[in-house]
Write the C-alpha cells for this entry.
Amino acid sequence: MCDGFGICAKHAPSYFSLDDWGYATLVGTGEVPEADQPAVMRALLDCPVHAIIEMTGGPLAVPTPAPIHGEAPEPHPETDANEAEWGFVR
C-alpha cells in the first residue's frame, strides 16, 4: 500500500527503510521497545495512505461461529460426500 512518501522513515528511521524509489519496508521483526514507541506511532499516524498497521496481542484468531440450533452442520471439505458441491472430482 505504500505510495513512497517516506514520512515513516523520517519519524522512525530505525524501523523503516526506503528503497531506490522511496517505498518503505519494515526493518527488523516489528517489535518496538517502549522507548521507541512514540516515534513509531507518529510514523503510523502520519502515513498519508495508512499503509502501516499496528498489530498487538500475538497471532490473530478467527472466531468459529456458533452452530444454529436445528441446522445441519456443514460437511468437512475433505470428505467424499461433498465433491460435487465443491466442483472437483478425484
